[in-house]
Sequence to fold (613 residues):
Amino acid sequence: MNETPDPGPRTPDILLSLENVDAGYGPIRALHGITLNVRAGEIVTLIGANGAGKTTTLLCCSGIVTPTSGAIRFAGQAIHGQPAHAIVRHGIAQVPEGRKIFPRLSVLENLRLGAFTRSDPTEIAASIDHAFTLFPILAERRHQAGGTLSGGEQQMLAIGRALMSKPRVLLMDEPSMGVAPLLVLKIFETIRTLNREGLSVLLVEQNARLALKLAHRGYVIETGRIVMEDDAKRLLADPKVQEAYLGE
Amino acid sequence: MIPSVLSVASVASVASVARLSAFLLVALLPAIDLLLPTTWKFASLVPAIMVYAIIGLGLNLITGFTGLFNLGSAAFMAIGAYTFAILTCPIYPFQIGFFPGLLAATAMGGIAGLLLSLPVMRLRGDYVAIVTLGFGEIVQDVLKNLDAVTKGTQGLNPVAVPAMPGVSFSVGNYVPWYYLYLVLLIAVVWLCHNLRYSRLGRSWVAVREDELAARSMGLPTPWIKQIAFALGSALCATGGAMFASLAGTSIEPGFYDFQQSVIILCIVIVGGMGNITGVLLGACIMVGFNSIVLTKLTEMMSRNGWTGDNVLASPGNWKFMLYGIALILMMRLRPKGLLPAKEVPAELRYRDRDRDRDKAPAGAN
Fold:
């Protein structure tokens, strides 16, 4: 009689979850029942071949692609079907594939646009300072047009811009694409720093080795289905993963 | 160090001297005009340029800043002109006068722009152009066929002229128009400049640069495009009402045709899309050529007896050929407009403002 009541499935620390998500483009189905979750304070990586559905999964989370079925929850609240601009306000920010900074706006204007959902000027100024602390090169180039930055600097700008909305989860799509190797390391180092500050990250990355070294957990996606899910360390040691994605 | 500082200083002073002299020239033009021989006087034609500059600035919000290709700007000019005419023409009971009429025309243009933006906001690129092109044709036909209200092809006249104590606005005396319209133009330039560097203006440019990225930054892009459309159309309507007042009539529906839209678009393109100074320059070139150079050329040719049955004897007959050649040369030689380095001067000015703004919170703490 003095049993504690059953708390049910223990999920309070799950921040972002996808449950059986189907999505596609017109008649083409890209995702077949994707289920994955990101817990608070975690870096989760999604690895897979080109066209496996990695980017589509992220676009579903950010609302750019609307799932045809299934549920996406953020902090317990269903967000699927909401428009992208509303989802940002919940605390989900995206660093899009290919960076997609605004090339003819200055670095500072790019950052200010990232803070579109916020209104307090002092807090926004503090976030700009934070971005400049993370990436001092952006402070140096603050009045330069975004399009004149190098690939790596643009990636930093894209990350800085995404952080301006004060997200709780950062969706990152191929942050190493088109970036010089040294800068890739610097960017991954920054992701780790941000994560220690409490940010959760869902990372899609071609460079599976680097991604699995950084992440706490990983999912492997093949033709729109999750085929493996494990600790990042165990995935890194898994012979199948090594053969298919790590080139060993 | 020293030479670069010197060159920066001299560039700045050259720019400010140029700006000051341009301002003085515009402010004193009616006086200077008095000194010119009768055949060379042209200041009376300048208020029309100012009107087109306002219309161009309106289209610039839509096409230049936000990147929506609008081929129906003349329709909004017409909406402004006819709203103004209906509300001020003595044949109707309203007769609310110039300034209320101008405000009403602006509001009507904004409402029409907002309505048109409903189907447009989901479209991109060429499709926006097609919808606005169709809208332009519809407005012309409606005005032409709604005889009972618009008097069809006759147009509505007379319409109100500005009424200000101690100043008489009449067809014969352009000077009051000149200064009133100059003040209105300066107000619109000030408005557009502040809009561009506001949160809204940044959002417009972001939508133009990359709509998907803008959405994933939390920008409600349909709404942002709608605001651009409504504000830009409102300014086009303001210009239409000002033009009607200047002309003394709503003119006739056929005046607001596709060619008119193209001329307005050229004003925006020739100067450099998205650049306010460029739009002013574009208005001077496009309308100045049409209403000053061609007019003077025609006068000169008829004085010298160069008229006749030859179609080439009338410069008005080959102006569109000249426009065409000019546009082809522009696209070939300066595809980004006459003032293509638009972001650079904007940034230089912005830099000082930002520095102050960045310092302000630090000082406040």
